[in-house]
Design a protein that fits this description.
Layout: E1 10-14, E2 20-21, E3 26-34, E4 41-52, E5 58-67, E6 72-80, E7 88-89, E8 93-104, E9 109-116, E10 123-124, E11 129-131, E12 143-145, H1 156-159, H2 171-180, E13 184-188, H3 195-208, E14 212-217, H4 226-234, E15 240-245, H5 252-265, E16 268-273, E17 281-284, H6 289-299, H7 308-317, H8 322-334
Parallel strand pairs: 2-9, 7-10, 13-16, 13-17, 14-15, 15-16
Antiparallel strand pairs: 1-3, 3-6, 4-5, 4-8, 7-8, 8-9, 11-12
Helix pairs in contact: 4-5, 6-7
Length: 339
């Protein structure tokens, strides 16, 4: 076990401190843990994930699980890397390899990034590499990395970590009101005003209270055909609290069926909608230029200054759609060298 004093809660150590590998090479090292109580399990995963403007993608290649590991301990690990994909970065997307150690139950997690490529260095796509002035060739020494997708403060995975910000009320207030409304209510507001984020936050709060939830996302890209709607409703039990994101995106006949069925076959129905009237309104979401400024300030970690005039213009041009504003800011940062 070794000396328990000074041990971090979860640690990943790579043999020889090596963090760059060729495809097919062995990744070896040691994990250590020092926790307040005995976990049910520890799991070390070798994975890759993407970061950038689009939807985050991820794949776990291998796992090393330790059941009933005790509160303190250590263990060796060894994984063989596959032939690809390579670690790379462009302006729109970066692919990142990592080792991740998680504890169950609990929220303890530690991640250590590694590079996987034939050269032992992250591959830079042409979109983030600029030839040095005066160079007539493209040797490694002549390339200068600009803004990589993984470094962009407005990457999708960073934006997803932003939670709903209340003005004049709180999550506890909404929970009290929801109970008074018999858990049949709507979160309304224009596109990009935080409805989905608030619904996700509500779900976590409701589950902490011991309620059982079933979440369904509907939009133009993921419609809800009537057959799928009927199948979803047929699987409900009376303890299920249904959360429907995008109620105004489903057909009127499906919505009528949804509304009627959940009265008698579910514990409640909470929806998001651009327009009011589908159910009694729980909260009307809206945004302000000041809210956009606050979010941008937090995302950039005070390392860069974005002009207030620019943010006001974005908020006005996108009619308060913060998601669209942040996408534009991603592009603006990707075109500049903020590193």
């Amino acid at each position: 076990m070794g000396d328990k004093s000074g041990m971090g809660r979860l640690n990943i150590e790579l043999s020889g401190g090596k963090d760059a590998f060729a495809p097919g090479e062995q990744v070896e090292g040691r994990i250590e843990w020092g926790l307040d109580s005995n976990p049910r399990a520890l799991e070390l995963s070798l994975l890759w994930y993407t970061s950038g403007k689009g939807t985050r993608d991820a794949r776990v290649l291998y796992t090393h699980k330790i059941d009933n590991p005790g509160a303190f301990g250590s263990d060796k690990f060894s994984f063989t890397l596959p032939a690809g994909p390579y670690s790379f970065s462009g302006k729109l997307i970066s692919l990142i390899w990592a080792l991740e150690l998680t504890c169950t139950p609990g929220e303890e997690t530690v991640r250590k990034e590694i590079v996987v490529s034939p050269t032992g260095r992250e591959i830079l796509l042409a979109s983030v590499a600029g030839q040095r002035q005066g160079q007539g060739h493209f040797s490694d020494a002549s390339w200068v990395c600009l803004m990589r997708a993984r470094d962009n403060p407005f990457a999708a995975d960073r934006i997803e970590r932003i939670r709903y910000r209340f003005a004049g009320t709180s999550l506890d207030d909404l929970l009290i009101r929801l109970e008074e409304m018999n858990y049949r209510a709507a979160i309304t507001g224009p596109e990009g005003s935080g409805k989905t984020t608030l619904l996700e936050d509500l779900r976590q709060a409701l589950e902490r209270k011991g309620l059982r939830t079933k979440l369904l996302f509907v939009n133009d890209a993921s419609p809800l055909p009537e057959a799928q709607c009927r199948r979803f409703l047929s699987e409900l039990v009376s303890q299920d609290l249904v959360l429907l994101d995008g109620a105004d995106a489903i057909r009127r006949s499906s919505w009528s069926l949804f509304r009627r069925h959940t009265i008698t076959h579910a514990a409640g129905l909470i929806v998001t909608s651009h327009r009011p009237g589908l159910l009694p309104t729980l909260i009307q979401c809206s945004t302000t230029p000041a809210l956009l400024q606050e979010i941008v300030h937090d995302l950039t970690s005070q390392t860069a200054t974005t002009s207030r005039a620019l943010l006001d213009d974005l908020h006005s041009r996108h009619h308060g759609n913060l998601r669209a504003c942040l996408r534009d800011l991603y592009d603006l940062y990707a075109q500049s060298d903020h590193m």
